[in-house]
Specification:
Layout (H helix, E strand, L loop, with lengths): L1 H4 L2 H11 L2 H12 L2 E2 H5 L6 H13 L3 E6 L2 E6 L1 H30 L11
Antiparallel strand pairs: 1-3, 2-3
Organism: Arthrobacter cupressi
Keywords: DNA-binding
GO molecular function: DNA binding; DNA-binding transcription factor activity
Length: about 120
Amino acid sequence: MVVDHLDDAGIDRLFQALADPTRRDIVRRVTLGGYSVSGLAALYAMSFAAVQKHVAVLERASLVSKEKRGREQIVRGNHDGLQNVRRLLDEYEAIWRQRAERIADILAEEPKNNGRIQQ
């Protein structure tokens, strides 16, 4: 189970990183191809420093990685980190599906007559 491989703090970092729409957009973009931090900053109506902070949050959650190329930092999606998110969500989905199946089983059971004699 992925939950066994990630501690609570790691899971919190993943969900906190993905809770912000700008960070989700950055993940989407850098998964399709690498971007420099300055290239990312040009895409958003925020300061370069703000984009750097978003990238740092994503990097701490292992969703992106940075590679220094000359004077620039190239940001790329981290496949393993994204796979952890997918597996974690798959596990949560399996739990909910099991619960829904159990509820369906309970609802399908023959009703008991609560000790009354049927006529």
